[in-house]
Amino acid sequence: MNNHPVTNLKQGLASLYQRYNRREFVHPDPLEMVYRYSTPEDQEIAGLVSASLAYGRVTQILASAGKVLDLMDGAGAGGSPHRFLGRTTDRELRKLLRTFTHRFTTGEEMAALLIGIKRVIAEHGSLEDTFASGMKREDETVLPGLAEFVDHLRRAAGGADACPSLLSSPADGSACKRLNLYLRWMVRRDRVDPGPWRKISRSKLVVPLDTHMFRIARALDLTRSRQANLKTAVEITRAFARHSPRDPVRYDFCLTRLGINPSVKGAPLLRPLQQYLAVIERE
Fold first, then answer.
1. CB neighbour burial string for 252-277, b if at least 16 within 10 angstroms, e if fewer
2. Residues 170 and 66 in one domain
3. Count of domains in the chain?
4. Residue among 140, 248, 260, 238 nearest 187 (CA)
């Protein structure tokens, strides 16, 4: 795009990354739930549970994800979601989650997701291997693999209608914000993202497009789209890739902190974001 509002966007983004891409700025964020575990087999399960519930108020997201993980930690599995799913029957899962709710999500849906996770792990060995099985070397982004991954989970969970509020797919035209967020956590490794997965390239990740990132991207003239859809998410990702081709999603966390973490908002380093931040201050 011509006449970019930032004289040196790459330098500004790099400064923002260095300053705010730190653990101390994570709270409040569902990513916190992944930090509870140290092994990849537990992190990938905790991450999918937490990301799938990442809609609504963040305090409620943290509470709901915590309930599910506490249930798995406290069921005689030694604080391991992987071990818990390996020894728990489908019937027991449905019983344990019968009273669970999170906005539009019922206990039945959450149980179905956990059943799906359990079954694909039994079939493929891990969630990472399930995802990798749907990726091709020539794929430009993770989206084809994500569509296959969701299809695997849906079928294992009982069909396309098993957990509609928890799993979205690029095949349905969704921007898949929550699942792209999950992939950022799993694939990237730095001071914030734990990155337990090794088989997916971070260069193929797609920006998790939420309201904050959409407004910020428009403020930075990275897109002129008026809709926060899948096409826009890919467009914004490509714009970031011009500055960080090997890791286009590296700026997601630090940029979205500007509207989420009170200690960050009000300290912008990029001039075009000032108007957006002023709006946040008034909300």
1. bbbbbbbbbbeebbeebbbebbeebb
2. yes
3. 2
4. 248
Report helix angle 274-282 to 252-260, nearest 10. Answer: 40
The percent of residues in the chain predicted with pLDDT above 70, rounded, is 87
Report the SS3 class of residue 9: helix
> Which of 143, 171, 201 is at the close of a domain?
201
What confidence category does residue 19 fall into, taking pLDDT thresholds of 50, 70 and 90? confident
Residues 226 and 173 in one domain: no
Pairing of strands 101-102, 105-106: antiparallel
Q: Give the predicted TM-score (pTM) of the model.
A: 0.91
| pLDDT tens string 143-166 | 999 999 999 999 999 998 899 999
Q: In whole angstroms, what is the distance from residue 282 CA to residue 274 CA?
A: 13
Q: Does 4 share its domain with 130?
A: no
Could you tell me the residue range of the domain that residue 241 belongs to? Answer: 1-21+207-283
Measuring CA to CA, how many Å separate 97 from each of 113, 165, 238, 255? 11, 16, 40, 35
| Separation CA 182–CA 26 (nearest Å) | 15
Q: Which two tokens stand for residue 151?
A: 């299809």
Same domain, 64 and 155: yes
